[in-house]
């Protein structure tokens, strides 16, 4: 029944503890860490909105209130900026509040990504929906999510975004065994392994944090036992759906993504992402890039 229902909702899990960024994330959600001057989570919500999904459900937990404040109006701040006649900053403050219809549900217990997605069941109902993980940012010039929605429209079932990585990277992700279809950038997913042990990965194609899920995933998640790391894994639920046909909520297809993805989930990639985003901002790049070149040259000279 849900087969021809259009996708209108996006689920964004944001309940993680952010331990990789302690102590910065002791009192600040990791999703609020800025990429230049915008919190990472705003880029994710903007991506969903530009794919036409403006009903956003954030899965949050303890200590995540700053995220709610960010997507809300900030009356006093707006008044102050109005009094200062600073329309540009006023616009930037209002923008995040007007972006989308943002809803929240709390996960309560850290039982894994599959459990976080399961928390969306009541809000989503019997409709297909997108899942966007905040650690991955997709360049706004690469319309990955739109393409995934088209693939869902054509094939039904669920869709994951896949990217080819070096073999030593595979065990950090969910990995897919794939078969070609008639379309160059679309594959049928035949197997999925969450964080395979090195040497046992079915391919070099890993799941990046974008999914379009058939609502059948909820019934499956309800019965999915804890997997890798003792957590309920979305990957495991999708494997169950990959083995089903369209009448039962399957199958699973992959969109092969060859565009620009930025990782913000660990310190080194976060730094790279900030530099890349700064280099794309003309008002910063004009001064920042010459400085960066000089800094690196001096650093090399000093042999450090
Ligand atoms: C999660 C998923 C994994 C996926 C990854 C993408 O892992 O479980 O399958 O490849 O996101 O970023 P996590 O990074 O939460 O450990």
TrEMBL record:
User: Which residues, if any, are the signal sequence?
Assistant: none
Which enzyme class?
transferase
User: Highest taxon of the source?
Assistant: Bacteria
InterPro entries on file: GalU_uridylyltTrfase_bac/arc (IPR005771), NTP_transferase_dom (IPR005835), Nucleotide-diphossugar_trans (IPR029044)
| Keyword list, A-Z | Nucleotidyltransferase, Transferase
One of the record's GO molecular function terms: nucleotidyltransferase activity
* Classification via NCBIfam families: galU
Q: Which PANTHER family match?
A: UTP--GLUCOSE-1-PHOSPHATE URIDYLYLTRANSFERASE
Q: Which family does it belong to?
A: Belongs to the UDPGP type 2 family.
Protein name in the entry: UTP--glucose-1-phosphate uridylyltransferase
What is the species of this protein?
Actinoallomurus spadix
GN (gene name): galU
